[in-house]
Structure formats: structure tokens, C-alpha cells
Specification:
Elements (H helix, E strand, L loop, with lengths): L28 H6 L1 H15 L9 H20 L9 H28 L1 H6 L6 H27 L6 H31 L2 H13 L9 H8 L3 H4 L3 H12 L1 H4 L3 H8 L4 H26 L3 H4 L1
Helix pairs in contact: 2-6, 3-4, 3-6, 4-6, 4-7, 4-8, 4-11, 6-7, 7-8, 7-11, 7-14, 11-14
């Protein structure tokens, strides 16, 4: 038996009485932003991994949105002749493409983020919410080239931004960010237990393109369904697209006030704030579900 000398013994009064806690973080999303350094490393790793071994690198982020726009414009605009019905149809459509691409990439990549980083999840004590949040930030980074293309196109045709339009754009991006992060949190936790959820998400995102006023104007929905068009506006992504169109497309047209009156819902901002509030509630619920399940992640992975 080893004896501790009296001069080296520990005075019990110096030992703090503190409860034993798990080494993993328990602060949820708040703790994610407290550890911003680790979050930056994850975002940088994701971006570098995407362009690893690529000759053009970040240039692909400009090529792909431009090709996506060209495909939709020639097929939908020229073949279906929608460019004759909607002034600056290309800008109208591309504003929707930016919003939809940001959401679908956040949702899809966020859903797979825990499983994709399972080696880190099993070995490091860190807030697991960091992985879906990092996916959202990477998606936001990749939407910047689309915004650059959209801004240049709008400026070229005489875009006249106004305070209400810029506020609508900020509200639209806030809505997509919160909604995408909330769904990414919820589905990333579910995907740990059942890998089918990643395929479910990929299937759901197929419908988004057609469920928002991107390749067709909202005025068509309103004229076809009348008062029932209010149910169409219950879709938060439809509202987000309309907000971005209010920011970019409306200001680029020859008569912004008339376009806003005829082609946008009159309660655009009220609906936007209502959807944002609902998305924040969903984010809180997703955080609660995620917190209850995350202790089983390492075991399931």
C-alpha cells in the first residue's frame, strides 16, 4: 500500500463540490457559436474537400448556377414561351433558383452531416449540432456566386433597389436559413437511426422546384385558383422565393409598383414574418429532439 506523506496530502476543504457532467457540450446551438474556431475549421474542411483535386476550383460555383439558369431559361422560357408573359423572365426565375438551391443544399447536406462525420462524432466531445450548422454555412458560401450573377444581371437591365426590396431580400434569406437549419437538425438526427431519411430528403427536394413561383409567376396561381391561392402561400419556400423576387426582379422591371401590385401578394411582409416565426419555433423543437437523441449517436454509428 502506498502512503501519502502528510505534507502532500489533500485538504478536503480544497476539493470543490461539483456534480459530475458529461464531457460533451450541452449548450446546443448556443454552444456551437461559442466554439466558433471549431466551426470555422469544419466549414473550411467541407469547402476544401469539395474542390480537392479540381483544376477550376471555386470557379465551378459560378459555372453550375449559370448552366442551371441557361437550362431552365431555354427549356421553360423559350420552349413554353413564358418569357413573353413575364418581364425579365430570366431574373424572375434566377431569383427563385438562388433561394431553392440554398435551401435544398442546406437540407440535403445537413441531413447527411452527422453520418458523413461519424469518425469525429465518435471520438470528440463537441456539440453535434455543429455539423448541420456547418453544412448550412457551406451552402451559404456556395450561394454567393449565384447572388453575384443575379446582381450583375439586375444591374445590367437597370435594377433600382429600394429599402422595402432590400428588406424583403434579407427576410427571404433569413427564412431560408432558419427553415433549412431546423430541418437539417431534425433529419440529421433521424438519419443516424434510419439511413432512409437521406433518400426521403432527396425525394422531397424534387418537388420544391415546382411548388414555388419560380418557373411560373404567382399571378398564374392567383388567376387559376382565386382565393384558394392563400393555401399555396402556406408553403414557406414559396414565400421566400416571392421575397427574393421582390428584392431583385421587381426593381428591375419597367414599373416596379405595378408589378408588386399585380404579381405579388399584398400581405407579402406579414406572411414572411409569420413564416419566419414558425420556422424559429420549428428550430427550437428540432433542437429539443436533437438533444434527446444525440447521446445515442455514437452507439448507432
Amino acid at each position: 500500500m502506498i502512503r501519502i506523506p502528510v505534507e502532500h496530502s489533500v485538504d478536503p476543504s480544497w476539493v470543490p463540490e461539483a456534480p459530475l457532467v458529461t464531457p460533451a457540450a450541452q449548450g446546443g446551438l448556443v454552444d456551437v457559436f461559442r466554439r466558433r474556431y471549431v466551426l470555422r475549421l469544419l466549414v473550411r474542411k467541407e469547402i476544401q474537400a469539395r474542390y480537392s483535386g479540381s483544376f477550376l476550383g471555386l470557379f465551378w460555383s459560378y459555372v453550375q448556377p449559370a448552366i442551371r439558369f441557361a437550362m431552365y431559361f431555354f427549356v421553360i422560357g423559350l420552349v413554353l414561351r413564358l418569357h413573353r408573359e413575364v418581364e425579365y423572365f430570366g431574373i424572375h426565375m434566377f431569383a427563385g433558383i438562388v433561394a431553392v438551391h440554398y435551401f435544398t443544399e442546406t437540407f440535403t447536406a445537413g441531413t447527411r452531416s452527422i453520418v458523413r462525420n461519424q469518425a469525429i462524432v465518435k471520438k470528440m466531445a463537441m456539440p453535434r449540432e455543429m455539423f448541420p450548422v456547418a453544412s448550412m454555412l457551406v451552402s451559404a458560401f456556395h450561394v454567393i456566386p449565384g447572388l453575384v450573377i443575379l446582381t450583375v444581371a439586375c444591374t445590367w437591365v437597370g435594377w433600382r433597389p429600394d429599402a422595402a426590396g432590400l428588406a424583403a431580400g434579407a427576410l427571404g434569406f433569413a427564412l431560408v436559413t432558419v427553415l433549412g437549419t431546423a430541418l437539417a437538425l431534425l433529419f440529421s438526427a433521424a438519419n443516424v437511426f434510419f439511413r432512409d431519411f437521406s433518400n426521403v430528403v432527396s425525394t422531397l427536394t424534387i418537388f420544391i422546384t415546382w411548388s414555388v413561383p419560380m418557373i411560373y409567376p404567382f399571378s398564374k396561381v392567383e388567376s387559376r385558383f382565386g382565393a384558394a391561392a392563400d393555401f399555396y402561400l402556406l408553403n414557406p419556400m414559396a414565400e421566400a422565393v416571392l421575397l427574393l423576387q421582390r428584392c431583385f426582379w421587381t426593381g428591375a422591371t419597367s414599373d416596379p409598383e405595378e408589378i408588386a401590385r399585380t404579381d405579388l401578394p399584398p400581405n407579402l411582409f406579414q406572411l414572411g414574418f409569420a413564416h419566419l416565426g414558425a420556422a424559429l419555433v420549428l428550430l427550437v423543437l428540432a433542437q429539443l429532439v436533437f438533444s434527446r437523441l444525440e447521446n445515442k449517436f455514437a452507439e448507432r454509428l
